[in-house]
Amino acid sequence: MAYSAPTYGNFEVVIGLEVHAQLMTKTKIFCGCSTEFNAPANTNICPVCTGHPGSLPVLNKKAVEFAFTAALATNCKLNLNSVFSRKNYFYPDLPKGYQISQYDKPFCEHGYLDVEVGGTPQKPELAVTKRVGITRIHMEEDAGKSVHGQGFSMVNLNRACTPLIEIVSEPDIRSSEEAGAYLRKLRAILMYIGVCDGNMQEGSFRCDANVSVRQIGATKFGTRAEIKNVNSFRFVEKAIEYEISRQIQVIESGGKVVQETRTYDSGKNITVSMRSKEEAHDYRYFPEPDLITLKVSEAEIERIRKTMPELPEAKRDRYVSEYGIPKYDANVITNSKKFAEFFESVVKVCGEPKIVSIWV
Ligand code: ADP
Ligand code: MG
Ligand code: ZN
Fold it and tell me: If you take atom 7 of ligand 1, which residue's CA is the nearest one?
């Protein structure tokens, strides 16, 4: 039977994902400090990224190019004018007291990714293509990092002001499998185009999962919980599965799911409440007065478009037509740039693509 999203008794699941991807620039988004990951604490910092009064941000051109490349690779509509905004909140690792982000005028919107779900190595014919909408992508700076010891805490601001894109999906995802497929595809694309190293341990690619359940046939979405910063695909899938059963249990025992932020404990395989959800108005967004409107020309976008390498889907279709290997296999191979490069170099040496694809 062809794939359809799973249901849980009388319930179905609605998921939207927010992905933060760190852009691979050498320097930070609003200052010239290095973005090197392993530098000693608080060595890659300056008055701008530590939020000294009177310091001024200067936008990194390379970060903008990378962000626009990501937008083109995810089928987004680009906004030639976009605006940076201040998102105000207090946190020890955010000395400025606000994060420079984009709010009502992000640089791109209305994209999508097509992902393959439902197939297995034994039954590849069951795979179907599912389209997941991308609401928007915006640029922002990262915060620093709090490091907790016994009885004290320290803050490392090396990461403050490193460039991120946040990719927000539509609530189109209907299972943990679909969520995993979307994340793997998105990470592969960002790595193909060379804008993100995809390193989940180092936090270069991290995901917040918004999960809700509703009665099958209901037209309105249920109340969602947001699971923060899960740092592996398997954990995202497991966190979602746990969250689905938790929410169904709450509803079936007569309770109400509350809108809140939760964290995933991988040791216990549960999600735990962190705080009630803040709303956009709590952040008092306003346009960043120290940066002007970001204007990008059609010509500049064309120039960026021409630098785009072959993306996973194009590569997959080429493998099918050029090498005659099954679409399912081609999809698995092209979902990782390194894997695809390995496959192609082996084929070059031994000239037997079908056999190589089976081995790989
Ligand atoms: P916020 O910044 O408050 O997290 P957004 O409104 O931008 O908010 O939504 C964040 C994510 O939540 C999006 O990916 C969206 O698709 C998803 N989402 C919104 N409503 C629901 C819902 N009822 N169930 C699951 N996901 C949802
Ligand atoms: Mg959110
Ligand atoms: Zn700096």
Answer: 168
Strands 84-88 and 163-169: unpaired
Non-local CB neighbours of 332 within 8 Å, separated by 6+ positions:
none
Per-residue pLDDT tens digits for 49-78 = 999 999 999 999 999 999 999 999 999 999
Nearby residues for ligand 3 (ion, Cβ within 5 Å): 31, 33, 46, 48-49
Q: Which of 63, 167, 160, 37 is nearest to 113 (CA)?
A: 167
- Closest ligand to Cα 33: 3
Roughly what angle, to the nearest 10 degrees, separates helices 337-350 and 176-192?
70
Region 170-176: mean pLDDT is: 96
Ligand 1 mutation target, pool 168, 214, 223, most atoms within 8 A of CB:
168
Q: Where are the alpha helices (DSSP H) in the chain?
A: 61-73, 176-192, 233-252, 298-306, 312-318, 327-334, 337-350, 353-359
318-356 pLDDT tens trace? 999 998 888 888 888 998 888 899 998 998 898 888 888
**pTM for the whole structure:** 0.94
Contacts of 255 (CB under 8 A, 6+ apart): none
